[in-house]
Amino acid sequence: MSRKVLVIGEVREGSLRNVSFEAIAAAKTVAEGGEVVGVLIGDAVSALGQELIQNGADRVVVVEDAGLKQYTSDGYAQALLAVIDAESPEGIIMGHTALGKDLAPKLAGKLSSGLISDATAVEEAGGNIVFTRPIYSGKAFEKKIVTEGIIFATVRPNNITPLGKDESKTGDVSSLTVAIKDLRTVIKEVVRKASEGVDLSEAKVVIAGGRGVKSEEGFEPLKELANVLGGAVGASRGACDAEYCDYSLQIGQTGKVVTPDLYIACGISGAIQHLAGMSNSKVIVAINKDPEANIFKVADYGIVGDLFEVVPLLTEEFKKLKVLS
Ligand code: FAD
């Protein structure tokens, strides 16, 4: 059964986030040969329409309004509901990001639809669209189908392979005028936490430090390794609580969920709440002085040793490999 599926293109600092392209790939599966319609919401975002098309959307609808310059669930919900009203989609896919986690439940409530959140895979099986999502803090996976109404899902960043960019692809980018009104929240200014380099939740490589780094300066060797590998630095709550780093770096049940290709845990014991945020990473390397540390149970490669010796050695080795390649 072919369907029309809307995909929300998520824009941050003027660029589309990768998860938008992953959502398009998920939407293609849900559409089963039907139409994938990208949706861009913001102040001046229409220029990004062709990029969504080059990454697999068939066409794009843009809602632009000064009231949409900053994300508010009120404003975006008004815009998206207007697009849904105009397009009557059978599916809606967005990223399971801070935006998606806030907006999707609100919309599902307004539409009286179900919502499959945090999907890590989607496939067609036995005549159904089947979503896989982690449960019990990533200890198990469940498979879900939608039995009636709109197929509405959020997809976890870094899990679904994007279709790839085809720069020759063109398509229609149209705009829909929506009068955004009665906003209950107005964002006057966004003050970003100083964060260097790669976005943690989308990083392909994460170097995470725990209480074992012992101080703010203890993160320096981790930052160096992250720089060499083009990755991002993360942390356990232990490290955040000890004020070695900012809470924006926290990974886990009450922090960010990451699924990079490579996760290097340095001086992290592997508490269940930490594992909830990283155990689905593709390759996990643990560096810990304690051979009994729980983190080794989820690690693909374990190094029993002092992180202050091991991390600089790894950095040097990776530097050599980079020179050779
Ligand atoms: P520790 O448990 O103290 O481990 C430090 C590790 O470093 C040890 O294993 C030690 O052997 C090793 N080490 C020390 N020195 C070195 C060295 N020089 N070289 C190598 N290894 C060394 N935690 C999270 O991370 N994320 C969450 O989202 C989260 N949410 C929580 C929610 C709730 C409701 C609760 C109750 C707890 C939560 N926690 C969370 C906290 C969690 O239970 C742990 O306390 C925390 O993860 C421990 O952090 P840690 O592994 O850095 O510290």
Features:
alpha/beta; Rossmann fold; 2 domains; five-stranded parallel beta sheet; 8 helices; 27% helix; binds flavin-adenine dinucleotide
Short structural summary:
This protein has 325 residues and is α/β, with parallel strands linked by helices.
Could you characterize what this model shows?
By secondary structure, this protein is α/β, with parallel strands linked by helices. The chain folds into two domains: 5-175, HUPs (Rossmann fold, 3-Layer(aba) Sandwich); 200-324, TPP-binding domain (Rossmann fold, 3-Layer(aba) Sandwich), CATH 3.40.50.1220. It is 27% helix and 25% strand. It has a seven-stranded parallel β-sheet with strand order 7-11-6-1-4-5-12, with helices on both faces. It has a five-stranded parallel β-sheet with strand order 14-13-15-16-17. The longest helix is centred in the C-terminal third of the chain and has 18 residues, at 307-324. The radius of gyration is 21 Å and the shape is globular. The mean pLDDT is 95. The structure holds flavin-adenine dinucleotide. Flavin-adenine dinucleotide is lined by residues 210-212, 236-239, 250-255, 267-269, 271, 273-274, 277, 287-290, 293, 306-308. Residues 210-212, 236-239, 250-255, 267-269, 271, 273-274, 277, 287-290, 293, 306-308 line the site of flavin-adenine dinucleotide.
